[in-house]
Amino acid sequence: MTTAYRLLGPIAVLEEGREIRIGAPRLRTLLAALLVNANQTVTASELVHWLWGGEPPAQPQRALHTAVFRLRGLLGPTTQLETVAGGYRLRLQSGQLDLDRFRQLVAAGTADSLTKALRLWNGEPLTGALDHPVVVDQRAVLVEQWLRVTEQLIDARLEQNEHNELIADLTALTKQYPLRERFWAQLMLALHRSSRQADALAAYQELAELLREELGIDPGEEVRRLHQLVLSGEEARGPDWQVHRQLPIDIGDFVGRYDEADAIVDRLTSPSGVPVVTISGPPGAGKTALAVRVAHRLRDEYPDGQWFVRLEGAGDSEKNPCEVLRGLLELAGAEVLTGDVDTLSARLRSLLAGRRVLILLDDAKDSQQVRPLLPGSRDSAVLVTSRNDLAGLSVLDSALGTTVAVLEEDEAVDLLRAVIGAARVDREPAAAAELARLCGHLPLALRIAASHLAGRPEESIASYAEQLRGGDRLFALSLIGEPDAAVEVAFHRSYVALTPDSQRLFALLGVVPGPDVTAEAAAALLGTTPVVAGRLLDTLVTANLLVRQQDRYRMHDLLRLYAEQRAAVADDVDDAWARLCEWYLRTADAATQHAYMPSVRLTPPLGGSAPASAHWLEDEEANLVAVIKRAAERGPYETAWRLADVLRQYLTLQHRVDPWRTAVMAGLAAARTTSHLGGQGAMLHSLGALQFISGDNAAAIASGEQAAELYHRAGFGLGYAALLCNLGMAHDDQGESERAAELLRRGVDALREYDQPAALVNALNSLSNVECNLGDLEAALAAAEEAVATAPDERSRTISLFNRGVALRLLGELHEAERDLAEAAQSVDDALPLQYESALLYADLGYLEEAESWARQALTRSRGNGQPWHEAASLNALGTIYRRRGRWNAAVRFHQAAGGIARSNGHRATVAESVLGLAAADLGQGQGERAGDLARQALLAARRLGHRILACRALLLLAVLEPAAGHAAEAAALQEETGYRPSWTAPAAGG
C-alpha cells in the first residue's frame, strides 16, 4: 500500500489515491512538523513549539504524547511514526513526500525538471496548519524556495530564447512580488531580447520609482547593468585572454576525503548544478589540501586557467574584495579599473563569460568577501576554503557546502603510515592508533607528529605518544621555526578573528568538563540570557571552533585543550564556573521534581526553573556527572554531593549503573573533604542503593548502616527511618528474611510519624515482599493493600499493585492477581520484577507464549542494565515456562544459568529457586533419584532462609517422588499456615 504526503499546498495524506481526513488543525500541524523533518528526530520541545507556540499546556509532554497517539491512529499501522530518544521520527521512503520530490527535481537543474518541480505546488504551503510562529517561519522558507526555483526556471528558459513567451509571466510576477528585483531584471532582459527596448526602459523606471518610494533606495547592480545594456544596445568587447595555471603542488601522501572529493568533482562537472563549492572546517582539518587535490583532478576541464588566491581570512588582515578583483582582472589581461567593488565584479563576470576557468579561493573570511569574486555563468567554477561556515553562499548562491571534520581512525593511521612508512607503523599498531587519538585525528597535528618521528627514526611511536600524553600537547605539536606548522598557532588565528564577546565565551568553555553545552549552559557561564549565548555559540560554529548537533554544541579535543589555556588567563573564570555549577544543580533539581523525586532526600527543593525538554536529564547526563567529578576535585564541594543526591532517583529508575557509581563516589569524596555529616550520609545512602541493585548485598548493608548512623548524627530522622527499610531489603536479599522483616517493621512504624506517604508506601511494599518470602501471605496482602490505598502517585501505586498481585497469585487468586498486574503493566514504569512476575502469573494461567514474552523482556533489560539478580530471576522464570512446555533440556539450561549468576552474587533464595527448578526438570525427564537429591537441597535451603512457600513447593515435589515419606502432609500443613495455593502440580515421576 502506497501512502503519499503533501505539504506544498493543503496538508494532505493520500492512501492509494484516497485522502485520509485529518480534521484537527493541531494534528495537521503535528504531521507537518514531522514531514518537514522527515527521517530526522524532532525533539519534544520543537514539537511543542509547532503545536502550541508560546502557550504550551500545563503538561506539554502528556499532551504531545496524546497527539502523537491520535495521529498514529489516523495514519494507520503501516506508518513508521517512531518514538526515539529525544523525540519522534517519521520514516518515509524516497518520493512519498511532495517536498522531497520537489527538491529532487530541483537538484536535477534542467528546465524540464524545474517545470515538473513547480507543478507539485498547489497554493500556499502548509495550508491547514496552526499559524504559530514556527509554522509561519517554515512557510516563509518554503515560499522562498518556490521563488528561487521560479527564478532558476526563468533563467533556463531565457537561455532557450523563450523571451516572448516569458514576458506575460514575468509581468505578473513583478506585480505579485514588486520588491523582488530579480524578476524585474529578467523582465527587462526578456523585453530587450524581444526588441522592446522602450518597454524594458519603462520597466526600469517603474522599479526605480517603486524602490525610492517604498524603501528610499536605488535599484541594485544587476538591474542597473541591464539598464545600461539596454541604453547602449550592445555589449563591450573583452580583452585578449591570458591563461594562468597557479595551483599549488598536490600533496603526494594525501589520505582520506574520498567521498567529499568525488562529490565536489561531480558538482563542478555537472551541466546543471551551480559550479561553486565551499569547503569549511576547523583549523588544521586539511581544507586547502582537499581543495588543491580536487583542483588538480579538474585541470583538464578548465583549459582557460586555474587561478589561486589566498584571501587571508583567518586573521584580522583579510584581503579586500576590491584588491582581489584588481588582481584577477590583471591576470585576465584586462585594463585594471578604478571604481567600487560592484564595478570591478561586473567587469570580471564579463571577462569570464564563455571562458572555462577554475578559481580556488583559499582561506575566505565570509560570504561577503567571496560573493563579488564569483563568475556570472556556469562555464567557470569556484572552490572556496574557509575556517568559517559560508552558509550564505549555499543559501543565496546555491553553492554546494562541504564540511570536513577530523579523519576517521583508520584514515589517521594511514596518514602516519604514508609519512613515516608502513613498516614502522605496522610494528606498533596500537601505539600508532593512540598517537592518532592524541592528535585528535586532526590532519595538521598528525603531519606535525609524523614529521617529528620521521626526523627521529630511532624513537618509538609509543615513547613519543607518552611524551604527548604527559606534557603540553599543543606546544609539542609544532615545528620549530615554522609558524604555519603549529596546531596552537592555527587555533590562535581563528581565536583572534573572533569578536571580544565570542573570545570570552570560547575561553570560558574551557572550564566546561562535559562533552557538550547548550545555549542555557553557556548563558550560565556568561551570566547572560540563552538567546545572547546562543548567538555567540553560533559564531563559534560559524568559525568551526564548535560543532552544532541540534541544540547542543561540541568541541574538538585539541580545541578543548586550547580553550583550557585561554580559560587559565581569563578574568572571571572562577565566577563563571560557580554560575555553571549553580545552574546545573538548580536545573537538575527542577527536572527531577515530577518523575524523579525520591520519597526521602536530604537536599531540599532548590527552586530552579524546569527545563523545557522532558528528556533534559538524559541529554545532560554526561555533563552532570562531569560537573560532579570536577566539583569534587576543585569545588564547590557541596555542589558535588548535592548534585549527586539530586540525581539519585533518576539514576536508579533509569538503571544507569556506571554513571551512578562515578557520581556517588565523587560526591562522597567531596562530602568527606568538608566533613559534612549529612552529605556523607546521603552519598552512602545512594552508594548502598547502587550496591543493592548491583547484587553486592553485603556491601549494601555496610554502606546503609554507615549512612543510617550519619543521618542519625546529622538529625535527619526521616532518612534514618528510610534506611532501616533499605537495610531490611538488603538483608532479605541475603536470605535473612526474619531480620529483614524486623527492620522493615521498625522502619514502617518510624515512617508513620512523618507526613511522607511516598516513603511509607515504599516501606510497605518492601515489607509485603518480605512477608511473601516468609510465607505470611495475609500479612503480605495487608501491607500491599495499605500501600495501594496510600500511594500518592502513579509509580508507587504501580509497585503496590504489583506486590498485591504477587500475594494474590501465591494465595491462588489468579484472576484477581492478573487484574492487578495488568493494571500495573499499563503504567509507564515497566519495572523488571513486574515483567518476570507477570511471566510467572501467565505461566500459572497457562498462557505460555505471553509468559515467555514477559520473561524475555525482563531478561533483555536486566542484561543491559547490569542487574544480575534480576537476570537470574528472569532466567528462572524462563526455566519454569519451558518446564511447563515439557522442554526439559532448555529448562535445565535456564535454571543452571540462573543458579550460576545467583551464586556469584550471594542470592541464596534465587539459588534455591534454581535448584528446585532443576529438580522439577529432572523429575520430568524420569531422573527421579537426582530430582530427589536436588529437591532436598532446595528444601534445606528454604528452611534455613525461613522461606515457607519455597519449602512447601519442595515438599510437594518430594511427595511425588516419595509418596510414603510424609512430605504431602508437611506440605498440607504449610499450605494451611500460609494460605499458599499452588496453581500447578508437578508431573508424576518419569512423566
Fill in the keyword field for this structure:
five-stranded parallel β-sheet; three-stranded antiparallel β-sheet; 64% helix; alpha/beta; 991 residues; 48 helices
Could you explain how this protein is built, in words?
This protein is α/β, with parallel strands linked by helices and 991 residues long. 64% of the residues lie in helices and 6% in strands. The chain contains 48 helices and 16 strands. The strands form five sheets. Strands 8-9-10-7-11 form a five-stranded parallel beta sheet, sandwiched between helices. Strand 1 and strand 2 (12-15) form a beta hairpin. Helix 1 (25-36) packs across helix 3. It is elongated and about 120 Å long. The two termini are 51 Å apart. The model is unreliable at 235-239 (pLDDT under 50).
